[in-house]
Each structure stands twice: as structure tokens, then as C-alpha cells.
């Protein structure tokens, strides 16, 4: 689960990470009020969406008067911001974060992520942060520094000092860097984060001397740990998620939208992957990944059909159930209910195996509805692909 920049900054601030003072605004008037309260001469108005690349897309505006703050907020709120991370349809901007602008001397990159190879939290840093970090990574990967953290010991001061020195943060800035890096790490570990990214971590003017500050912050959390992170869970912004995925999770279904045209209703992630592979092998593409889980009731199966059909690209449905805890008769009952209640016109290929399979098949046969039954996964995929042809 991702959160907005302003939420990430508030959270990091509670771990002692210096961030600019700011406030969140849902209207241009509110944005102007915040700028006045903050004081100063320059402000930054930043679109709050769950995507990076805002700076290059016009979603981050540095302005020099309260009127300009108002105008920038007016221009951003209500528009769809298209960045290289949003896809061509962009994301609707509902609120902006207004913060004091800093005089920036240099931009660094600081991140934490879980390295799947070492299975450890890894500190990532670069002396060349800012909006072109992806280019730095492509052109000179040696400028990206990594430090693996031993889970039994945690992040040690010397590791922070080593990384700070390698990216060029020396003298007084090194002590600040150590505190800041450790703050981000504690937040990452305590809150079950998967990714933390401070880009840029900047050296800015502060009371006549240089100081370090997190000018941007991105945090992403482990969904499986949200049950023990109520404060994080409250920061969830459902508007930023695929509405079908949100609806599915409300029904206890695991749904991921994809870009093909065969809707898949499957039980278990492994079978879902195999089903998607089989569809691809037969020359088509899955429209989604939908896992109904175990012990799916007829109602749950009907809900699954409804969610799959909300995608206008779906031209055929492939139901592939290998029932262990599930019951094929319940699945069949749910499918029959769905075809009748939702008036499903798209061809539906059904492959059932496992618990109560005879009862399930009999129900489909006796329903008088046009189910296309399949003997096995390969047969089911072939028939679903063939059903796409008019
Ligand atoms: P994104 O990563 O989505 O492009 P950022 O928050 O990193 O958005 O902002 C883009 C750039 O804007 C930063 O790299 C930085 O140069 C500048 N910037 C952001 N916040 C401030 C600030 N408070 N003061 C001065 N410059 C800022
Ligand atoms: Mg950034």
C-alpha cells in the first residue's frame, strides 16, 4: 500500500527526519491560507498523487507570492496529472501540499528496500539524486551505493557514516546524515515498509548554514502487515487504487486488473499463474487475475463474475477451479446464479476438478445455460481463446 508524500513526511517527521513545514489543501483558498500561515517568500505547491515524476510533469510548482500559490493550486486541483508513472490516463489531483521552498545546494538520493536476493533491508544512496535518478542508475550504476543491514543487529552508525562519506556528505552534514538515515530506517522497520525513498534528500540553507532535509518522501507498506499497523492503514487512499481491486478486496477476492480480454476466475495464486500462462500460450491475453480463494460460496463466485465483467475488455470468461477446500457444486451454483442474475452474454468456459466435481458438472449440464465445459487446463485455455472469435 502506498501513501501520499504529505503523509510520508508527517510520519518521517515523527522519527526525527527534518522535512519542510507545510500543510495540505483541498482548494486554492485553503492553499493560499496555508502559505500565509507558513510565511516566507517562496513556496512549493505539490500535487498529491501516488506516483512519482511529478516535477517533470508540472505537478511541483515553486512560486514567489501567495497569489501564485493560489493560482498553482487552482491549476492542479481537479486536473489529471500525467507522469511517466501514471500511465496515459493520468491521476486526478484532489489535494496539494503547500510547503516552504528551500534554497537547494545539492540533491542526494536515499532509499531503503528489501533486497530479495539477500532477503535483507538494504540502504541505497547516491550523491546524484533528484529528478534524473533513473538516468543515473542506467548510465552509471556504480554511482548507486548499497549497504545491507543485518536484521539481528540493525543499522549501525558506522554503516551510515560510510554511506554518507561515499556520497559526499562530510563534516557537520555527516552527523545530520547519520541521524536522518537512522530515522528513516526505524520508520521503515517499525511500520513494516517495503520501500522508502527520499529523493531528493537535499542540502539546503538553514539559518546561515547548510543542513539536510527530506524534500520528497515516498513510502510503501506491506499489505500483509496492515492488520498490525492501524495508523498506516488509516492513511490508505482508495481513490488512488483500481476501483475493481478495492471492490474485490471488500468481497474477500484477490483481483488484479490486466490488459487482455479473457476474464479469469480461478482458485489459488499458483493456478491463476498457470491459467494465465496457458491463455498466453494459446495466443491470447488474460484480462485479469482473480483468485476466489478457498471455500468460496456461490455468492462469492457470483461477485467474482460481476467484478470480472465490469472490465469492458472482457470478451470471454475462463473459470478454472481445482477444488480442495472449495466445492465444485458451490462454484457451479454461483456461476448459474451469475449468468441468470447478471445476464452474462460472453462465452464462459468452465473447467472443474476436485471436491464434488460430479455434482458440479451435473448442475451446469442441467441448468440449460450455454456453459462451455473443458476437461483440463489446456483444453479450457484453448476453448476460451477460440471463444473470442465471433
Ligand atoms: P517528484 O519526485 O514527483 O518529481 P519532488 O517532490 O521530488 O517530486 O519534487 C521535484 C523537484 O522539485 C525536487 O527534485 C526539488 O528539486 C524540487 N523541490 C521539491 N520540494 C522542494 C522544496 N520544498 N524546496 C525547493 N525545491 C523543492
Ligand atoms: Mg522526488
From TrEMBL:
Keywords: ATP-binding, Ligase, Magnesium, Metal-binding, Nucleotide-binding, Tricarboxylic acid cycle
Cofactor field: Mg(2+)
A UniProt-annotated Pfam family: Ligase_CoA
Pathway(s) annotated for this protein in UniProt: Carbohydrate metabolism; tricarboxylic acid cycle; succinate from succinyl-CoA (ligase route): step 1/1
Binding site for substrate: 267
Database matches in PROSITE patterns: ATP_GRASP, SUCCINYL_COA_LIG_3
Catalytic activity: succinate + ATP + CoA = succinyl-CoA + ADP + phosphate; GTP + succinate + CoA = succinyl-CoA + GDP + phosphate
Cofactor note: Binds 1 Mg(2+) ion per subunit.
Domain of life: Bacteria
Annotated residues for binding of ATP: 46, 53-55, 99, 102, 107
SUPFAM superfamilies registered for this protein in UniProt: Glutathione synthetase ATP-binding domain-like, Succinyl-CoA synthetase domains
Alphabetized InterPro entries for the sequence: ATP-grasp, ATP-grasp_succ-CoA_synth-type, ATP_grasp_subdomain_1, Succ-CoA_synthase_bsu_CS, SUCC_ACL_C, Succ_CoA_ligase-like_bsu, Succinyl-CoA_synth-like
ATP-grasp domain location: 9-55
GO MF term (any one): succinate-CoA ligase (ADP-forming) activity
This enzyme's EC code(s): 6.2.1.5
Annotated binding of Mg(2+), by residue: 199, 216
Family classification: Belongs to the succinate/malate CoA ligase beta subunit family.
Complex and partners: Heterotetramer of two alpha and two beta subunits.
Function: Succinyl-CoA synthetase functions in the citric acid cycle (TCA), coupling the hydrolysis of succinyl-CoA to the synthesis of either ATP or GTP and thus represents the only step of substrate-level phosphorylation in the TCA. The beta subunit provides nucleotide specificity of the enzyme and binds the substrate succinate, while the binding sites for coenzyme A and phosphate are found in the alpha subunit.
Descriptive protein name: Succinate--CoA ligase [ADP-forming] subunit beta
